[in-house]
Amino acid sequence: MFQPNEDEIQSLVGQMTVAEKVDLLSGRGLWKTASIQRLGIPSIVMTDGAHGVRYSTTQIDAGDNDEDSLQAFLAVVGQQADASGGMFGTTRPATCFPNGNLLGCSWDVDLAYRMGEALAAECQDFGVHLLLGPGINIRRTPLAGRAYEYYSEDPLISGDIAAAVISGLQDNGVGASLKHFACNNSEIERTTTSSDVNERALREIYLAGFERVIGKSAPWTVMSAYNRLNGIQAAEHHWLLSTVLREEWGYDGLVVSDWHAIKDRGAALAAGTDLDMPESQPRKARLRAAIEAGDLAPEVVDAACGRVLALVRKCKMHERRGAPADLDAHHALSREIAAESIVLLRNDGKTLPLDPERLRELLIVGDGAVIPVIQGSGSATTNPYRVDSPFVQIAARAGDRFNVRHLPFSSAAQVGLSASIKAIVQATSGADVVVVFAENEKSRHGEGNDRDTLKLAASHDALITALAAAGRKLVVVLSMPDTVEMPWIGDVDAVLASFYAGQGGGEALARILFGEQNPCGKLSVSMPARMQDIPGWHTYPGEHGRHVYSEGVFVGYRFYDLKAIAPAFPFGHGLSYTTFAYETIEVDKGEIGADAGCTVRVTVSNSGSVAGKEVVQLYVRPLAPGLKRPIRELKSFAKLDLQPGEARTVSFTLTQRDFRYFDTSRSAWVLDAEAFVVEAAASSRDIRLSATLSCRPESSALPVLSPNSPTALVFAHPKAETALVDFFFAALSISSAEATALVAKTKGSFLGFYDTLSWYVGDSVKESDIAGVFARLNDHHGEAPSS
Length: 787
Ligand code: BGC
What we know:
Immunoglobulin-like, single chain, 5-stranded parallel beta sheet, hydrolase, alpha/beta, beta-glucosidase activity, globular, TIM Barrel
C-alpha cells in the first residue's frame, strides 16, 4: 500500500533524480503514470469517459511503449460509435449511460451522483483509478462536435451536475478529471485555435462552472484544454492555471494536460500543468534539459512531483481490486436516468401518452428504433454491454392489445427516396399513431468535427413532412448531439428529445410513450429556430487561428433574451403529462446589500391528475444594472416530485455572488443595480412568479487614471484636485491660489488631461510627472488575462 504522509511525500521527492522526476511528470504510455520501483512508487491507471468507462485491453493491458498506441488513440478519438460493438472489439463491455447532453436535461443532482457511483464501481472492477471526465465546456454553439459530452449552455447546471458526478465517483474511491479547462467550445482547429474571450465572459460564463465544481466537489484532477486562450496555449496559461485556479479558487489537486496538448513542456509546468499525458519521449527530453539548465525553478518541479504523488496516494488508498460491478443494476440505472431526462418538447392535443387499451395499430418507423444511436463519437465512447432496442421495448407493451410494426428507414442518403417515403405513407394509412425515430444529418459530427448544419438527415425531414401532410398522428423521437432545426414542428403532434440516451434509452422511451413514466426532463440549452440565430454566429469559427467570442457574456438564452429572438424551444423548457401551479414566492428580505444573500421560498402544486416532477427554476433579473447585463440568469433550481393535488414549498438560498457581475475595471464582483427581480419559472420564457428586492449598491470604485484620461474622469476622483494643486504648487513654484486656478482651467475639457494642461503650461510639466501623480492615486489592479 502506498500511503506516504505529506512529509514522506516531500522526502520521496527529495530523493528523486532529475530523470525520475521527469518520468513522474510525464506519464507512462497512453493511460498510466510512471512507477518508480526504487522508491516504491506505484503507477495508476486512467481512462475515459464521463458516460461510461472505456477500458481498452490492447491499450491498457498491453505494454506501455506499444508503437501502435498513438494509432490506437487516434482511432478511438476519430471513431464513429455504433451499437454493434464492432470497433469496440478490444474494449471491455461497460455501461453506456446517457451522455452529457441528456443527463444535463435531468436537472437532477441526486441521479448524477448515483451515475458517478456506478461509474466508480465499474472503474474499481477494471482497476481504473482515475476517470477522465466530466467535461463541462459551455455549449456555446450547438454545432460543436463535442456538445454531446457536455451538460449545458449555462454554468450553473453544468457545475452542479458535474459536481454531483464527481462526488459520486470520488466518494467511492475513483478520481475525476474536470475538463477541458478552458474554452474548448468547438472542434475547429481545436489544438491550435485561440478562443478570444473577454475577462468578464470568462468569469461569468466559461470559468464559472469550473469554479462552482472546484468549490463543491474538489476534483482530484483538472484537465487543461487543447486550445489557446487569448493567444496562450491553455496548458501553458499561468493566469488560468495558477492565478485563477490555484490562488483565487484554492485548488490543490493535480492539473493534467489533454492528450498531447502541451507544445512547450517547460512553459506548461511553470504555468501549472503538472502531468503531461500521454508519455512523449521528445517532451520528456526537453523537460529534462530545461530542468538541468536551471530554466525551471526547482520548487515548481518538486511541487508538481508532490501533487502527482498525492494523487497516486489517493488512488491507491481507495482502490478496491476484484470488486465486481453489478452491470444489471447499472443497466436499470441507465434506463432510469434516461427516463428522468428525456424532454417532451411538444404534445399537441395530448397525443401522448399512448393508451394501450385504445390503440389498434402503432407503427414505428426508422432504423433508429432498432439500432438506436445511444452515444456520440470520440474518446468518450463506451462499449455498451447491452442495448435496449426501442422497438422491442415498445412492442413488449402490446401483448394482444394492439398491433405494432416496425418499418425500416435509413438516415443515409437513399436512391429512390420519394418511392420509399410514398411506401411508408401508404403503409401507415391504417395506423392510429406513427412514431418516427429521426436523427441529425451526419456528414460531420463528433469529436474533431463540428457539424456544419443543424438539419436532420434530409431523408428524415422529407419523411416527417410527408407523413404530416398525409394527416398521420405523428410522434417524432429525436436522437441528436445537440439541437436540430425542425421545419415541420407545427405540423406534428408530439416530439420527444432523447439526445444520446445511452444503453437504457429504448426502455426509457417506451415508458414515456405509454405514460408509465411522466416526462420530467427540461432543456439545458436553447433550441434556436435556425442556425443563423446561434449566438456569436458572425464570428464563428474565427479566422487566422483566432476565434473571437463576440457575444461576450450573452451566451445561449442570455443572447436570445437580449436580442428578443424567439427560439424554437427555450432554455428550461419541457412538458409533462400533468400541470403545475406556481402558487407563492416569498423572499426573506426586501433589500440586497453587500453583506448578505437571501432565502427564497416557492410553493408549487401538481394541478393535474397524474404524479409528476417539475424542475422549478430560479432566475435573477437586475433592474438598471451598472453594466449591461443579461436580462435574467439562472441562479438555482430544484426538481420537485408531486402527487396529484400535492403542494410543496422549496427553499432556495441565493448568495451575494448571485446578484453580482464581474467588473474588469475593478477586477471584482460588483453589486450594482437599482433593484433585482427574483423569478420562479417553468422555463427561461415561462416566468410564473416574481418578487422584487431593492438593492443597496456598493460605493463605486475609484477611477483608474492615466495622463490621457478625460478631465471629467480625473476630477471624479475625490483626491485628484488636491493632489494636482499640491503638485503644481511644488513643481512650478507658484502660489496655491495660482495652482488652484490652473487646475480649474483644465476642467470641462473633453480632451485628455495632459493635452489640456500642456496648452496652459507647455512642457514645463512632463507627461511622466502627471503619470506619477496619478499612479499614487490609482488603486491596485490585479493581473489580467493576456490577449
Ligand atoms: C480528449 C480528452 C480525452 C483524452 C484521452 C483527448 O483527445 O480531448 O477529452 O480525455 O483525449 O482520451
